[in-house]
Amino acid sequence: MTATAQPFLLGIEIGGTKLQLGLGRGDGQILALERRTIEPARGAAGILAQISEVVPILLSRVEITRDQVAAGGIGFGGPVDVTRGVVTKSHQVAGWDRFPLAEWARAHLQIPLVSIQNDADTAGLAEARFGAGVGFSPLLYVTIGSGIGGGLILDNQIYRGSGAGALEIGHLWIVDRTTSDLDVVKLEDVASGWAIAAAARRYAERQIADGLGEWKVLQSADGIPSRIDTAMVAEAAKAGDQEASYILGKAVFAMAHALNQAITLLAPHRVILGGGVSLIGEEFWFAPIRNQLNLNVFPPFRGSFDVVPAALGEDVVIHGALALARDAVANVDGSHTTETRPS
C-alpha cells in the first residue's frame, strides 16, 4: 500500500514541559508539526486547551478537514491505562489523575479512533519502525532527560507486561559505589538530567558558601547555581574539570549498572539511548557506558548486543504516536501490519 493510500493521522506528545502535535500517515514522514511550551501552573486543563487550539492550525497547513483524520495516537509523559485510554498520573503537571484522555480526544477533537501509550514506549516504537532500531528485536529503548523512561519493543510492538506497563528502568534500584557507604538509589535520582544538574548545583552552593566562585560550571552559569544545567556539566567535564567529571561519571556508572541488569534479564539485540542527556555524545556518554557493560555484563551475552544513539531526534514521540494511530486503523480494518517503513 502506498503512502498516498493511507489516511491522515494525528500524533500528540504530552510531556512535562513540551507539547507537540503532528499530522502524517504513520509511514515515517511528518506532514505538519507544531510545538508548544507547557505551562505547568495551568495544569492539565491548560494543555487540553493548547491541543484544541493547535489542531485547526495543523489541519489548515495540510489543507484537510477534521473528518479526514481517521485516528490519533498520543504519547503521554507518565503512566497510562492503555486498555481504557486513561492517564494514570503525571509527575510534572497536576490534573491528570485518572483522566480519560482517549475519550476526551474522541469527543473534543472529533477523532473516531484514539490510542494512548506512555511516551517512552511510544518513542521506542518509533525507533523500532523508522529509526535506529529497524530490523532489531528485542529492542530496548531508554530515554534519559529530566527523568528516565524505557520501553521494550518485540517484533515492532510495545511490550507492556501484565498491562500496567513495563521497562520502568528509571525506577530501578541500583548500588551507588561512588560513595563509601554504598548507597542504594533509584537510577533516575543519579543519572537523569535533573539529577546531574542538581548534583552540580549543590556543589556550586558549597563553593559559594566556602567563599569560592572559580568552579568552571558555576562560571558558565554566571555565578548563579540555579542556572546550572546538564550541558554545562558535560562541557566542563570535556574540558577536564575534575568535579564535573566526577558528577558525570556517577551518572555513567549508574546508567551502565541499570542497563547491565536489563540486558541480563532481557537479552536485547540492540539498546538505543535517547533523550537530552544522550546528546553529551560518544566520548563522555556512550563509550564509557559500553566499556562498563563489556566489563560487567553476563559473559555469554557479550557481543550479542550493541548500544547506539537514537536517530529520530526531537520528533521521535510524534513518529511513534502516528504509528499508534496507524495501528488503530489497521486493527479496525482487520489488516494489522507492522510493515511501516517510510515510502
Automatic annotation (TrEMBL):
Domain of life, per lineage: Bacteria
SUPFAM superfamilies reported in the protein's UniProt record: Actin-like ATPase domain
Any one GO MF annotation of this record: kinase activity
InterPro entries in the record: ATPase_NBD, ROK
Pfam family, one: ROK
Keyword set includes Thylakoid: no
Keyword Kinase listed: yes
Signal peptide: none
Keywords: Kinase, Transferase
Family classification: Belongs to the ROK (NagC/XylR) family.
Protein name (database record): Transcriptional regulator/sugar kinase
Annotated source species: Singulisphaera acidiphila (strain ATCC BAA-1392 / DSM 18658 / VKM B-2454 / MOB10)
